[in-house]
Each structure stands twice: as C-alpha cells, then as structure tokens.
Design goal:
Strands 1, 2, 3, 4, 5, 6, 8, 9, 15 and 18 form a 10-stranded mixed β-sheet that branches. The chain has 308 residues and is α+β, with helices and mostly antiparallel strands. 29% of the residues lie in helices and 35% in strands. The protein has 2 domains: 126 residues, 3-Layer(aba) Sandwich (Rossmann fold), CATH 3.40.50; 155 residues, Tumour Suppressor Smad4 (Sandwich), CATH 2.60.200.40. α2 runs parallel beside α6, α3 runs parallel beside α4 and α7 packs across α8. The protein contains 9 helices and 18 strands.
C-alpha cells in the first residue's frame, strides 16, 4: 500500500455499492396461505446479510399496491413479493418506471410467472435466490393501459379468472371444477384482431397475450413464449367439441398445445382486438371488465426481476 493515500473514501464507496434496502410484501390471503415459518426464515437469513430489510403484510385487496407505493417513495433497492401472480402484478404496477428489482416468493395458487422464471417453490431456496441477487430485464405489456407481466387475455379464461376470484376455495382442482362447470354452456365471441397489416376475424374460446408461457399450474398456453424477446405470443384457441376436451387438457399440461388443430399463434408487439360485446379481460389472473375494444402494447425490457 502506498503511503500518503487515504483509502477510506474507497472503502465507504464499496460498502455503499454492496448495501441493499429490501422490503418484503407478504399477501396474507395468497393461495394456500402464508407458511408460519416465512417471517422467521426472512429474519434469520437477512439478518446475516449486509442489507436493510423490513417485512410488511397486505391483508385486504389493494393494500399491496399501497405498500409498494410507500416502498418506492422510500427509494428501496428491492421489493420481494410473497404471493401469486395478482400480487406480483399489483407491485409491478407501482415500480414499472423505477430501477427497483422485483423478487418473488411463490405463494399463489397458479404462480405462472414464478414457474416461467424457475423461481424455487421451496421458501428457503427462494430466499437464497433473493440473497444472490441475480437480475434479468424482462418485457412487460399493457392492455388498455392496464399493465401486466405474465399473461392477459379475453374469453373463457377471463370468465374463469372472475369466478375463481369469487370463490373461497383455492388450488388446481377448484380451478378445474370451475372450468368443467362452465365450459359446455360458454358461447365463444367473434373477435376482430388487427396487427401490423393483418386483420383476423375469429370465433374464439380464448385469446391470450402471453409474455410468459402459462396461466399457472404448468398449464402452458404459449410453450414458445420468451419473456425478453420483444414480442407477445398471441394465442387463439377455438372451442373444441366435448370429446376433444380431455386431449386438449393433456396438451395444455404437457406443452403440446401447438399441435392442436384448434390452436393458432403469432408474435406481435402491438395489436387491437374488437368485439360487439363488452369484454372481460384476464390480467395476470385477475379479471377486469372493459370496453368493446382492446389495445395491447409491449414494453421491452421494462422490469428487473431476480432469478435463480
């Protein structure tokens, strides 16, 4: 070491570079509930790190967004969401124009985004992922200016998202029960899709705008979707006859939907969809009533997420 050189400013600078402020936002109503050991494991692991952290709980609808707003105002480095796709969406809407990194502890029913990003479902491993802090810039999108990260769409899946939200029972089989109960009476709408120089008229069961590959539960509507390629996978599924439904379910569960004769897909970064009737839209597992026209736009590499 050279005499006469004061290295203290450099030590301070390096210390500040490695220092992180983290807020954990836990949805107390997520999926199957919050594991009792979650808070203890957070305290145990992050007390050993060079981090400033705190834990906040969201107990009612809309609260997680307000907690995220407060964290943004406090200029934290990282927000970790313990919840499902709806919770992730609620936080994302508040941090989309910031440099805050988003971490995920999958506690929801479907966890579509967490599955796509290979986030561990084991809590300790998910926390270790946050500690390592490896980040990736991913695309996001909007549908009528409503932001989404994973998947949005219109049609039957939006109806099921609405009904699933209203039921007190969670889990895969509760979701399947709703699908079976409503599938046969559901009447597909006629949609007009406009993208680039193409106009498509289609009578569809589902039209999905997929940034990630799935709805959740490993139900893959867009097996070839890449979350940072600058495009959405627009997936159109026509209503199959009753005898083809079991095989369609198999194809959705095993990444084989592209082989279905009832399925078509194309990539786009901007499009509109019109219908004669007001449409219910599915936005990251949450439903929203809207107008007869949808405008869908991609925002490339607009969110920094923590990945394994």
């Amino acid at each position: 070491m050279h005499e006469g050189i004061n290295i203290e400013p450099f030590i301070i600078y390096l210390s500040q570079m490695s220092y992180k402020s983290i807020v954990f936002l836990i949805n107390k109503n997520a999926g199957y509930g919050v594991p009792q050991e979650l808070e203890r494991l957070i305290n145990q692991r992050f007390s050993q790190q060079n981090n400033s952290f705190k834990i906040e709980y969201a107990e009612f609808q809309g609260q997680i967004e307000k907690l995220a707003q407060a964290a943004v105002q406090q200029k934290v480095d990282t927000i970790v969401v313990a919840g499902g796709d709806g919770s992730v969406n609620g936080v994302f809407k508040e941090i989309k124009d910031t440099n805050i990194s988003l971490g995920i502890i999958p506690l929801g029913s479907g966890n579509g985004l967490g599955r796509h990003l290979n986030i561990p479902f084991n809590i300790e491993k998910a926390l270790d992922t946050v500690i390592k802090g490896k980040t990736k810039l991913i695309d996001t999108a909007t549908i009528n200016n409503n932001p989404f990260v994973s998947i949005a769409g219109v049609g039957f899946d939006a109806l099921i998202a609405k009904l699933f939200r209203q039921t007190k029972v969670r889990g895969f089989w509760a979701y399947i029960k709703l699908v079976i109960k409503n599938y046969f009476s559901y009447q597909p709408e006629i949609y007009h899709i406009h993208h680039e120089d193409n106009n498509i008229e289609v009578k569809a069961l589902i039209i999905s705008f997929a940034n990630s590959d799935q709805f959740g539960y490993n139900t893959s509507i867009a097996p070839q979707a890449i979350i940072d390629d600058g495009f959405l996978d627009v997936c159109i599924l026509k209503k199959p006859p009753w005898y083809a439904v079991p095989f369609l379910g198999f194809q959705l569960m095993f990444n084989q939907i592209k082989h279905s004769p009832y399925y078509t897909t194309f990539k786009s970064n901007e499009l509109t969809v019109e219908s004669k009737e007001n449409m219910i839209i599915n936005i990251d597992g949450e439903h929203l009533s809207t107008t007869t026209k949808l405008a869908v736009r991609l925002a490339p590499k607009s969110l920094r997420v923590i990945i394994p």
